[in-house]
């Protein structure tokens, strides 16, 4: 099952570390899988592919976050036990990476040595609540499409094709449905992680409650704002900053 769930176009069997990347809502593996070529030979990049898209487009979409987490965990468990790993997630991908990391820690005592989170609220913050309460079934297709266009990140020419547009709207809805099933209650005095966390955000994106990530780790936490909107990370200059910064964090982890 690993080939089904994970894409790795730049295989580096001798790499010292792995970076597992998690896609945004409606997204596939293409952009983040290409990060592989931007990293040095010490880092191998995996990009996670969810059901309902790309080579898995004939499979039904996942019904809830627990299903997503279990599938990713069972596909990756052997690899994650072999060498130190970090997670990078953007938006919806940040929440998946958080949920997978939590499951790995609770069930297997495994933890990423660094969580890189982009364009996301801390999952126990007040700011996350509106996402959980928006009614997906009452939202019209054209409103979903408008929202996707406002967020950016989708090449306008793709939206010219009715089939692609329909599939994108459907995928976005289904991903949002999964996100709404993420339940995390921060227990008193329980700090789930000990790894370092880095939060990135676009300067023109709406602000995210990133401060609350402080509650979730005993490790160091840092925040960076990069020029651009919600999809600031697709700008080549930001991509260079991100991959260089992530490399520095990985190499300084001193593992």
TrEMBL record:
Tell me the superkingdom of the source. Eukaryota
Please tell me which top-level EC class this enzyme sits in. Answer: hydrolase
Q: What is its EC number?
A: 3.1.2.14
All residue ranges annotated as the Thioesterase domain in the record: 18-239
Entry keyword set:
Fatty acid biosynthesis, Fatty acid metabolism, Hydrolase, Lipid biosynthesis, Lipid metabolism
Which protein are we looking at?
S-acyl fatty acid synthase thioesterase, medium chain
Point out the coiled-coil segments of this chain.
none
Q: What SUPFAM superfamilies does the annotation carry? A: alpha/beta-Hydrolases
Quickly give the catalysed reaction.
(9Z)-octadecenoyl-[ACP] + H2O = (9Z)-octadecenoate + holo-[ACP] + H(+)
InterPro entries (UniProt xref): AB_hydrolase_fold (IPR029058), TEII (IPR012223), Thioesterase (IPR001031)
Which Pfam family, an example, fits this chain? Thioesterase
GO MF annotation: an example? fatty acyl-[ACP] hydrolase activity
């Amino acid at each position: 099952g690993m080939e089904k769930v994970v894409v790795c176009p730049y295989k580096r069997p001798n790499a010292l570390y792995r970076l597992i990347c998690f896609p945004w809502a409606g997204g596939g593996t293409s952009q983040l899988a290409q990060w592989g070529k931007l990293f040095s030979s010490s880092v191998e990049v995996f990009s996670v592919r969810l059901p309902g898209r790309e080579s898995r487009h004939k499979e039904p979409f996942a019904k809830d976050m627990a299903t997503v987490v279990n599938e990713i965990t069972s596909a990756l468990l052997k690899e994650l036990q072999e060498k130190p790993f970090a997670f990078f997630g953007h938006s919806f991908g940040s929440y998946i990476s958080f949920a997978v990391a939590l499951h790995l820690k609770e069930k297997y005592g495994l933890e990423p040595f660094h969580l890189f989170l982009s364009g996301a609220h801390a999952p126990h913050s007040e700011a996350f609540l509106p996402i959980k309460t928006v009614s997906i079934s009452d939202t019209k297709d054209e409103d979903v499409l408008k929202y996707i266009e406002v967020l950016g990140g989708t090449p306008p020419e793709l939206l010219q094709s009715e089939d692609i547009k329909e599939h994108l709207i459907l995928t976005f809805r289904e991903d949002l449905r999964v996100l709404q099933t993420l339940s995390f209650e921060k227990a008193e005095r329980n700090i789930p992680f000990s790894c370092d966390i880095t939060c990135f955000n676009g300067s023109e994106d709406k602000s995210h409650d990133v401060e609350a990530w402080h509650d979730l780790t005993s490790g160091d936490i840092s925040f960076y704002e990069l020029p651009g909107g919600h999809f600031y990370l697709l700008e080549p200059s930001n991509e260079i900053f991100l991959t260089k910064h992530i490399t520095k964090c990985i190499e300084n982890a001193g593992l």
